């Protein structure tokens, strides 16, 4: 930016925010806004001065407001949740059919593993399912006759691919039986940014 045109501004009402951690300006259809730079979806540069990567979070997939990363490693629930927390997130929670469809598309293009551990658990109270990120357990996609508490301790939740379609259904399962696990983050983890 050459700084010559700072008298021109079309900020949307209530912007720019000065008290948050927003650090980038965005053009929206209703005026300029601010946002955390990690959430930007694209950018416009002045000629000859642009250095950057068009994907600000290349090692995670943005779905809605969150970023998801598949870790192709077999770990039990506590170790997988710890690995996600070490990066600033949690094992993934899922809150709608649309979100699950997008997650399944991401999993399909990342190896299409059959069994994926996510953040659901009923270890605190049998049958009382909770997400490890503390969000409401407000959507389910249990397979018919699941959860049945029959696989080991049955206190973890894995999403299992149904045939080659990429569609998945949920099973309660022992805490160590999935091939990979899915982490979710509120913003792009710094280690996954460019
Ligand atoms: Ca259980
Ligand atoms: Ca089961």
Automatic annotation (TrEMBL):
Gene3D superfamilies: Mannose-Binding Protein A, subunit A. CDD domains: CLECT. SMART domains: CLECT. Residues 63-184 form the C-type lectin domain. InterPro entries: C-type_lectin-like, C-type_lectin-like/link_sf, C-type_lectin/snaclec_domain, CTDL_fold. PANTHER family: MANNOSE, PHOSPHOLIPASE, LECTIN RECEPTOR RELATED. This is C-type lectin domain-containing protein.
């Amino acid at each position: 930016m050459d700084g010559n045109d700072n008298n021109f501004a079309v900020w949307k009402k209530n912007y720019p925010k000065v008290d948050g951690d927003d650090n980038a300006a965005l053009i929206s259809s209703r005026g300029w806004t601010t946002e955390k730079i990690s959430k930007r979806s694209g950018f416009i540069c002045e000629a000859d001065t642009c250095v950057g990567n068009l994907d600000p979070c290349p090692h995670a997939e943005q779905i809605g407001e969150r970023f998801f990363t598949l870790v192709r490693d077999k770990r039990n629930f506590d170790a997988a949740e710890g690995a996600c927390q070490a990066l600033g997130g949690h094992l993934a929670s899922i809150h709608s059919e649309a979100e699950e469809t997008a997650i399944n598309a991401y999993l399909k293009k990342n190896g299409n593993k059959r069994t994926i551990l996510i953040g659901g658990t009923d270890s605190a109270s049998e049958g009382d399912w909770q997400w490890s990120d503390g969000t409401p357990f407000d959507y389910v996609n249990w397979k018919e006759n699941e959860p049945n508490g029959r696989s080991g301790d049955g206190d973890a939740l894995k999403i299992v691919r149904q045939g080659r379609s990429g569609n998945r259904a949920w099973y309660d399962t022992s805490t160590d039986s999935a091939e990979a696990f899915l982490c979710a983050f509120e913003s792009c983890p710094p280690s996954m940014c460019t």
